[in-house]
Amino acid sequence: MEPLMIVHGGAWAIPGELTERSLNGVRRAALEGHRVLRSGGSAVDAVVAAVTVLEDDTAFDAGHGAVLNLKGEVELDAIVIDGRDLSSGAVCAVQDIANPVQLARLVMDKTDHCLLGGVGANDFAKEQGFERLPPTELVTPEARAEWEKYIKFTTAVGALFSARDGDPKLTGCD
Amino acid sequence: TVGAVAMDTSGNLASATSTGGITAKKPGRVGDTPVIGAGAFADNDVGAVSSTGHGESIMKVCLTRRIAELMERGLSANEAAKTALEFMSTRVGGAGGVIVISKKGEVCHSFTTSRMAWASVTQGTLKSGIDPGQEFTENL
């Protein structure tokens, strides 16, 4: 059968200055996933490879481009699902690793569980030999600036409001 | 949030999604991404989906499972994606986007936010876009 691949880089009010970086990033990810498929890799291999490319690209809110929580920290979530038998693996609120999608795959392949969270996910990453990055490694200048903008704005108006795009109808998009 | 959906040469489907969440979210808040049937779904008998957007809304309507269910009922991948996103918008008020491959090999994307970056490779063609209705095409 002809292999098929599609990727996304997030749905939100993407600012104009991110347009080319976003398009180039999703194209590279789709091509990498398709390369894996054409070389005989499985659908699971392909989606993990494609998402890894996107996690390594600071244009996207995942891995190296992740946004910051209220405390100014990165917390990452990821999932992988295999359509052959509905097996799946996921991690949530994991910190200081570059590629949570690869950790999610190991949850699927090496445990009897579907989801590991927080400290447990971090411990599992350590068990599996994932490199623990310095806490600042995944924090981009853009993420820090956006976080600071949010903190200043909420301090000024005393209300929750995402600084992400300024439009309440579009706020809160992961 | 980022995601990928694939069909391999054996016809097997898979999906994956990954996110850093929302700027200044409450520590410990987890959205749809790691939740089966919300952030992703895949079943060789139906299709595979990855989602992005307002996590709480996506979880409330089990967006990716809903799309699979609509395809099970006979809707095309595109119809199912649009119907489920519209349901989410009207029922719980959230916006988002999805990518889908059906078991029949239909490949589609749909979004209700102002923009979503996407790219696909099918039959030797790389397609991509970011604005509604936009599609760049490149023969590989």
What does this structure look like?
The complex is a heterodimer of chains A (174) and B (140). Chain A is built from five helices and four strands; from the N terminus they run E-H-H-E-E-H-E-H-H. Chain A is of the alpha+beta class and 174 residues long. In chain A, strand 3 (87-94), helix 3 (100-110) and strand 4 form a beta-alpha-beta unit. In chain B, 23% of the residues lie in helices and 38% in strands. In chain B, the strands form three sheets. Chain B has a four-stranded antiparallel β-sheet with strand order 3-4-5-6. The longest helix of chain B is centred in the middle third of the chain and has 16 residues, at 77-92. Chain B starts with a strand and ends with a strand. Strand 2 (76-82) of chain A pairs antiparallel with strand 2 of chain B.
Query: Which ranges of chain A are low-confidence, i.e. pLDDT below 50, for 5 or more consecutive residues?
Result: 159-170
Structural class of chain A: alpha+beta
What value does the average pLDDT of chain A take?
A: 91
Order the strands across the largest sheet of chain B as they lie in space.
Answer: 3-4-5-6
Radius of gyration computed on alpha carbons of chain A: 17 Å
Average pLDDT, all residues of chain B: 97
Give the number of DSSP strands of chain A.
4
Give a quick set of tags describing it:
heterodimer, A: about 170 residues, three-stranded mixed beta sheet, globular, B: about 140 residues, three-stranded antiparallel beta sheet
